[in-house]
Each structure stands twice: as structure tokens, then as C-alpha cells.
Amino acid sequence: MALWQFSFDIIRAENIEMSKSDEGILDWKSNDITHLAIANIKNIFGIGQTWHKDLCVYGNLEKTHISIFRDDSGTSEISCRISLLEESVLKDVKVILSFINTIHGLILYEEAVYQADYDILIGLIRASNAAKFAVFGMEYFDQLKQH
After folding, report:
1. What is the mean pLDDT of residues 108-132?
2. pLDDT, position 36
3. pTM score, whole prediction
4. Taking a C-beta distance cutoff of 8 angstroms, is the pair 82, 5 a contact?
């Protein structure tokens, strides 16, 4: 992960009762993610290059992207990285939140679970170590909170 990327996992709402440190909290079933949700992020972010045959990347690994790992039983894990070097941060955050809400997911960040809400996600990004590397400066996050 690049220092300028804010990284988190996307979990199923049904997994919220699990321990936040249990790897099972990351598990998804293949039918949990609709083709429409995938088509939407594919249209916006495109298909990125991947390093493993079981990993689907939507976006660019060095920039903003959603990664979906599929094992033999179907979809297994979904993670997201948001590049804070891109001018499209606002648009990207909205697309990612739409995807998370469409699949009824939640944000797992540093072993805490959060609703997929715009103000919550911007607050997490602002408080992260990655925010220090944002090319726009900290005042940019104040502008993002107003949208």
C-alpha cells in the first residue's frame, strides 16, 4: 500500500457480530455482490492489472481501487484503497460508498466497523496517516465534508 492511499476492508453487515480480529469477518459469499454493483464500479474505475488470478481489481493499484478476491467458494474478501493524490477523491468516495451500500456492506478500518456514510468516511480519511500525504492539504478535507 502506498503512503498516500487510505485503505480499508468492506465486510458483510451480517458479519458484524464476529470478532473484529477474526479473519472470517472479511468473508463474502459470491451471491452477495450483484452484477449491477460490479458493472457500476467497472464502468467508472475500469479493470486494473492484478498480480493474482483470483483477484479482480477495479481501478489502478497505485491509485484508487476496489479489490475483490475470489476463492474456490466464490467471493471471499473485498478491500478498497483511496488515493489522496487524485483530484477525483470526492467522486471516488461517492462511487465507493454507493458500491458499499448497494451490496449492504460496512467499512472495517483498524478493527472498528463503520456505516458506509460520507461524513464518516471523510472523517476517517482525515484522521488517517495517509492524510498527511494528500497533495491538497488538510483544508481540502474541510471542503470535502461540505459536499
Report:
1. 92
2. 85
3. 0.87
4. yes
